[in-house]
Design goal:
634 residues; 18 helices; 24 strands
């Protein structure tokens, strides 16, 4: 380039005057194969008191693609006064995220070429003129991946592009591409583990789209166990399937359609006449996607498993945020080890998921227990069985009205001090408990209820009026309802992006369920000032953070004294700082609970046939506790 003094050029100049010309000269297409300033992460949200801000993140200088969304190589550039390989370590980090074997570092004089396909010499120095052609890198990539000629038409099938510029995030690319690779190689069972809020349904859509468009799979079934999951999927991510798609209703499978969305319950039942899936041949579907596969379908003796076994010749892909692994139930026994995993912790670190604080509130009667006096009767005149009732009993077999009111008062105080219109989900033990909590919250918030009588709503499986408000609750543009009391209906699959407070007044022993409930708050909506959320825990469920199976620890754990406000103080120690010693006892160690014989049921009014005592006139207060702050690693 004549007498240009490279040493005085900026990094941008080096890219535009030396690197890009060398890349384009050997045939890389500027429109479809070259992208600059590719942002792979969003920047972790850092929380300080009530304020939150993102960390700044760097972008990959250049990413080269075989075709859109099929990355091959990363190029990291530096100004000429740096050594040629200065950007290599940065480039290797981006290459790991994109799962590509080729990294180039350059200062404009040439390239240091890191080639994972060449195990004898990983890094070599090449001239600008010797940059590899698209065909050369693609051929090396195919050998590295072990692709066969039969796989290539499926693997190279285009992604769906709506023209808006929306592109899959790096982990979605990995999940989609690894699943397509596995299926094209003949794998007939696959498991995808992705944290709640990371776009499992969009990922599933792109997998189905590419397999369908390549005609590798012609008839597809998307299975879910809740109506809202099917409807959200059909209206949102799956919309491009258009007229080829149908929702199975009225126990009728229409063979005229290629894409079928169905509830398990719409396809099967205890009676032979309800087994609608038998209307078509066992080989009718050649691909089945099972949403939230940690539930029903995971168990060997599940009534829903019969559908999967009937269509056993179909390729089956399980989606879950929380794979279930117990002595009785195993996702990996059925689907195999995950083809890809993206965890809650990774999502928070990358800035795609909201971090969270924890406010632990211990109530004295929960810690000390309560025992009736001899012959004491409850509000219904029932003689109360003489024993000590503790936290596991409350709101199951023993209702103390003052306890419910204290929980409701604590929630109300928190919202008044922070944001009275912050979307809040209160998880209760059963439907009866959810109704009593709704009533207590309404009585404590008369000003808000006067503005809109839907300020608090019970949203449970038995309540059609409440369920009708679910769409309004999860719609960021709708102010009301603000507080939803629930038991099981909203534990999973409810896309409440602006939820800022998750309240746990439910006995939770299952890590799977705990992670699902945490997932109700992990979505980010910066345009609605939702950068983090708070978990308010009345039942000690957050002790599950101490379980080694948990990932994605809280940024702050706060346990107020009785005379302290329930909102955490603003002067939290900086991230990584050691917590001050308070002189209070340490938290009890975590011991995994023994499995319970009967799972919680949304349909039960607190378990039919079980005696539930209801009492009042009990003095209940928040117990003395300690404050504790944790860094990102717990």
């Amino acid at each position: 380039m004549g007498n240009v003094n490279k040493a005085k050029l900026t990094e941008t100049d080096i890219i535009t005057k030396f690197i890009l010309p060398a890349v384009k000269k050997v045939g890389w297409d500027d429109m479809t194969q070259i992208r600059q300033e590719v942002k792979l992460r969003d920047g972790k949200v850092v929380v300080r008191g009530q304020a939150a801000a993102r960390k700044k993140v760097k972008s990959a200088d250049i990413v080269l693609y075989h075709k859109p969304n099929m990355p091959l190589a990363v190029i990291e550039a530096k100004a000429n006064h740096h050594e040629m390989g200065k950007g290599m370590q940065q480039g290797l980090d981006y290459a790991r995220l994109l799962d590509v074997p080729f990294v180039f570092a350059s200062n404009g004089d040439g390239f240091v070429f890191h080639d994972k396909t060449n195990q004898t010499t990983l890094e070599t120095q090449i001239c600008l003129e010797d940059f590899p052609t698209p065909a050369q890198l693609w051929d090396k990539y195919c050998v590295w991946k072990g692709y066969t000629a039969a796989q290539l038409p499926i693997i190279t099938q285009d992604y769906y592009d709506d023209g808006s510029g929306k592109a899959p995030r790096y982990y979605q690319l990995q999940a989609i591409n690894k699943t397509i690779e596995a299926i094209s190689a003949g794998q007939d069972r696959a498991l995808l583990v992705m944290a709640t809020g990371t776009g499992k349904t969009y990922t599933a859509f792109q997998i189905i789209w590419r397999l369908w468009k390549s005609r590798n799979k012609k008839r597809i079934l998307f299975l879910a166990d809740r109506n809202i999951l099917v409807d959200q999927t059909r209206i949102n991510d799956f919309q491009p399937f258009g007229q080829a798609m149908t929702k199975v209703e009225g126990r009728k499978v229409d063979p005229a359609y290629e894409i079928h969305l169905a509830l398990y319950q719409a396809l099967t039942g205890p009676e032979e006449s309800q087994k609608a899936y038998k209307q078509v041949a066992p080989d009718f579907f050649d691909l089945i996607i099972i949403d939230e596969c940690h539930r029903g379908s995971a168990a060997d003796d599940s009534a829903w498993r019969e559908i999967l076994e009937y269509f056993g010749s179909a390729t089956q892909v399980g989606l879950t945020a929380t794979p279930k692994e117990t002595d009785e139930v195993s996702n990996t026994d059925y689907f195999g080890d995950p083809v890809y995993t993206y965890s809650l912790k990774e999502g928070i670190e990358d800035g795609f998921l909201a971090p969270y604080k924890v406010v632990r509130v211990d109530i004295d009667v929960d810690l000390q227990g309560w025992r009736p006096t001899k012959g004491q009767v409850d509000k219904k005149g029932e003689v109360i069985e003489d024993r000590i009732y503790n936290q596991k009993d409350f709101d199951r077999t023993m209702v103390i009205d003052e306890r419910t009111e204290l929980v409701a008062q604590t929630i109300t105080n928190y919202l008044k001090r922070t944001d009275p219109l912050a979307k809040t989900i209160v998880f209760c033990n059963d439907i009866d408990h959810a109704e009593r909590m709704r009533r207590a919250l309404i009585n404590l918030n008369p000003e808000q209820v006067a503005k809109n009588d839907k300020y608090v709503m019970k949203i449970t499986g038995d309540d059609e009026i409440g369920k009708a408000q679910l769409d309004n609750f999860i719609n960021p543009k709708k102010t009301y309802p603000v507080i939803a009391t629930t038991s099981e209906l909203m534990t999973t699959g409810v896309d409440a992006k602006t939820c800022k407070l998750v309240v746990l007044d439910q006995n939770i022993q299952s890590m799977t369920k705990f992670k699902q409930i945490i997932g109700r708050g992990t979505r980010l909506r910066e345009d609605y000032q939702k950068l983090y959320f708070t978990i308010m825990d009345f039942k000690g469920a957050t002790r599950l953070f101490a379980d080694p199976d948990f990932d994605g620890e809280p940024v702050d754990i706060y346990e107020p004294d009785p005379d302290q406000p329930v909102t955490p103080p603003d002067d939290a120690p900086p991230e990584g700082a050691n917590p001050p010693h308070t002189g209070e006892p340490e938290a009890p160690p975590y011991y995994p609970a023994a499995p319970q014989g009967r799972p919680d049921s949304e349909e039960s009014q607190g378990d039919k046939g079980r005696v539930k005592y209801v009492i009042d006139d009990v003095n209940v207060r928040i117990a003395v506790e300690r404050s504790q702050y944790l860094d990102a690693d717990g």
